[in-house]
Amino acid sequence: MTPFSYTRAEDVSDAVRLSAGDATAFLGGGTNLVDLMRETVARPDRLVDVTGLSNAIAETADGGLLIGAAVRNTALAEHQAVRTRYPVLSRAILAGASGQIRNMATVGGNLLQRTRCTYFYDTDGSRCNKRTPGTGCDAREGFNRIHAILGASDACVATHPSDMCVALTMLEATVHIEGRDGARTLAFGDLHRLPGDRPDLDTVLAPGELITAITLPPLGFAARSTYRKVRDRASYAFALISVAAAVEMDGDRIGDVRIAFGGVAHKPWRATKAEAVLRGASPTEATLRAAAAAEFADALPLRDNAFKPELATRTLAAVLADLATGEVA
Amino acid sequence: MSFIVNRNAVTGPADPRVSLLDHLRETLHLTGTKKGCNQGACGACTVLVDGERILSCLALAVQYDGRQITTIEGLGEAGTLHPLQTAFIEYDGFQCGYCTPGQICSAIGMAAEARRGVPSNVSANLSDNVTLTREEVQERMSGNLCRCGAHNGIIDAIQATITSERVTEVTA
Fold it and tell me: Are residues B117 and B96 part of one domain?
């Protein structure tokens, strides 16, 4: 680890003031950042500890929830309002990492965790445009089982690693941000970027901008929502494919539906094409497969991940069939 | 900065780069907590902070000012073993023993989570009623790897000690 200074922020304005300069990193639970610093992928001059900022979960006036960025992952997953009104969010968090890591990791940190592409971490032996722009990408022609099939670029085929963010994308959460130029909000789907020719930028945040909270909108049918994750071992592994979905039935037809995929792109992937196929349709196996086919028509699998469109299709069909029949608790 | 380790007040490191794990082992000479992968993948470094299990390898010590830390050395001693230590011996919960301190600290934190109703990835529903079935214990302990392959004995030892009826007895 290269040397750095450490300061604990007292409040949001303190954190923003302390973040002057591009080489500052905000520190949450450290479960990703400390590892990145040890591998010298991240080399901040200054850490501003923001774990003392808001860790509240509160009702909003419109019937949603406000979640402070310092809330730990376990605390969010076990919160009663989340369990009953947004079960997909509890399920997504519990599908990720381990009990120890969920006790440390914060909401803000989860949103800003970086890809687990092995070439990104291999500072000694691999080229990576995300780590060192302009050097090339060894994943594109390398071992790329976990990599992207949608929205990738010549520069980068990495996937976003978060489970929680897939649920937040599906729920259309809002991200609250504070910076030296004031406060702003972003739709969750606009926070993360596709790689393009700047894969070093995971998000649209400007240097020094701090995520202070997220809000969940009121969404009645999110009470019938869930998250399913498929991976190479039963637990404690990143997703090959994951699905976050909520369904509102209208008789025996799908009235409204929300779908997002994890493990397929540089950002959590909102499946608007699949949703359009499904609204008003009967949830038959053929229709569910047609919805997935619409979403993955443009997929460009790599050497080791040609299985992903079919795995995503089967996972989506299974999740939606369960949600349509109410077989998800 | 300072914190409490196994009921003793101790001084933290001056250098913010020092992990809680390295401070415990190298400065306080509490070598029961083990360094396995040093990157958050194995769970050997698990300790309890204010009763919650965390990975000390990914924890910068400077972040834990004023907190209560419990390591394996704070749980039992020769002659007066913690109930989980006794059970790990009885059920062959180890071969080399390197992962054992982390397994035991993790199991104690896991029991506290189950006691307050935290669901898991394999829970059939998200209610507060947690029954620590074998499948639940396997899932909740998946952050602690054992390369000797003693997982079945580990699960046996934990289940024998932390049944849903006796779950309140197992604490730090």
Answer: yes
| A74 Cβ neighbours under 8 A, 6+ residues apart | A93, A99, A102, A103, B113, B118
Q: Does B167 touch chain A (CB under 8 A)?
A: no
- Domain boundary, last residue among B47, B74, B101: B74
A68 is a domain residue: no
pTM of the model: 0.97
The answer on B50 and B103 residing in a single domain is no
Q: Which residue in chain A has the smallest CA separation from B37?
A: A35
CB < 8 Å from B in window 232-271 of A: 234-236
Q: Are B99 and B145 part of one and the same domain?
A: yes
For chain B, the domain total comes to 2
Q: What is the mean pLDDT of residues A163-187?
A: 97
pLDDT for the residue numbered B162: 86
Pick out chain B residues at pLDDT < 70: 164-172
pLDDT bracket for residue A21 (50, 70, 90): confident
The reply to whether B132 and B113 lie within a common domain is yes
A94 vs B contacts (CB less than 8 Å): 119-121, 123
Domain range enclosing B165: 83-169
What gap in Å lies between CA A176 and CA B43, rounded to an integer? 33
ipTM: 0.96
Which domain-ending residue is among B74, B107, B138? B74
Give the angle B160-A103-B6 at the CA atoms, nearest 5°. Answer: 70
∠ Cα A75 A81 A82 (to 5°): 60
Q: Which of B35, B46, B50, B121 to mutate to test the interface with A (most CBs of A within 10 A)?
A: B121
Cβ distance B63 to A234 less than 8 Å, yes or no, reads no
Position B172 scores a pLDDT of 67
Could you read off the pLDDT of A60-75 as tens digits, one per residue? 999 999 999 999 999 9
Could you tell me the residue range of the domain that residue A284 belongs to?
222-324
